[in-house]
Amino acid sequence: MTLSALLVLADGRFPAGGHAHSGGAEAAVKAGRVKDAADLESFCRGRLHTTGLTSAALAAAAAHGLDPYELDAAADARTPSAALRAAARRLGRQLMRAARATWPSPELDALAAAFPRGAHQPVVLGTAARAAGLGPEDAAHCVAYETVGGPATAAVRLLSLDPYQATAVLARLAPEMDQVAERAAAAARQGVADALPAASAPLLDLTAEQHAAWPVRLFAS
């Protein structure tokens, strides 16, 4: 295992397509629920402890070597919004391209062949982490960070928010990211069945469907 590989995987410049997605921030800004750094912190905290925890556990389970077909089905069951399921598979497909070029692996090849239209992004991320020599905790940390890092970056563009304030939000959430990653990795060690979290954020699901119907938008989701 190398911590440098984790830095590569978690780097926002890794060509995995995440920069085109706001993680629900665009809809929240338009609705007036996110207006400043304080609102952004509340939004990111809610996302971290719901969909973030669920996605981190899926990624940790994939990094642990659990059945990717079961995990992808579990991801589908935990994503009520059709728009978010489609976005997760698009992101998974883009991440797969980057991961196979970076860490060639029979497991990544097999997952790509099984899901030509893309597996869910957390499942791909966990498999990529495994190919990079990383463990379940590493995969969970990566997902926890991107869960809040994406909306924070998007808010800088959507609100012309001071990037220093956005970064400070991420720093304040760091202890909670660690807690979520630890919970996710612990759940992944218990298997796919009922142990994986199914924490949800219904408002994110609803606004994702609305956002997908907008004729003009800055972000894909």
Describe this structure in words.
- The chain is mainly α and 221 residues long.
- Helix content is 69%, strand content 0%.
- The model has no long low-confidence stretch (mean pLDDT 95).
Strand content: under 5%
Number of helices: 10
Spell the H/E element sequence: HHHHHHHHHH
Determine the mean pLDDT: 95
What low-confidence regions span 5 or more consecutive residues with pLDDT below 50?
none
What's the shape?
A: globular
**Computed structural class:** mainly alpha
Q: Report the count of strand segments.
A: 0
Spatial extent as radius of gyration: 16 Å
The helix content is: 55-70%
The profile of the biggest β sheet is: none
How far do the termini sit from each other? Answer: 33 Å
Summarize the structure in short.
The protein is mainly α and 221 residues long. Helix content is 69%, strand content 0%.
Topology:
Blueprint: H1 3-10, H2 25-30, H3 37-63, H4 68-77, H5 82-102, H6 106-114, H7 121-131, H8 136-159, H9 163-188, H10 202-212
Helix pairs in contact: 3-4, 3-7, 3-8, 3-9, 5-7, 7-8, 8-9
Question: Which terms would index this structure?
Answer:
221 residues; mainly alpha; single chain
